[in-house]
């Protein structure tokens, strides 16, 4: 009779925005300010340096109080909103999570 033993290692990595494609964080750089877009595995996808990120082209913003409500990346539009399950990347707290809802 042969016995086989298998060990499965499960990583402790967690998604920064479960159910979303990207997260946006204020990196607290500046001036000008800087904001970073991360994929759900904390890979840096885009960094925006601007005095006003709402007119830089990558983000859509709400009226005051200003929050990012859209991400425009690689010809696609992503809807963004705060999520209580968001995490951090490189020590930066994720402000909003973004996903493409087919647009």
TrEMBL record:
Annotated signal sequence range: 1-15
Organism of provenance: Armillaria solidipes
Keyword annotations: Signal
Name this protein carries in UniProt: Hydrophobin
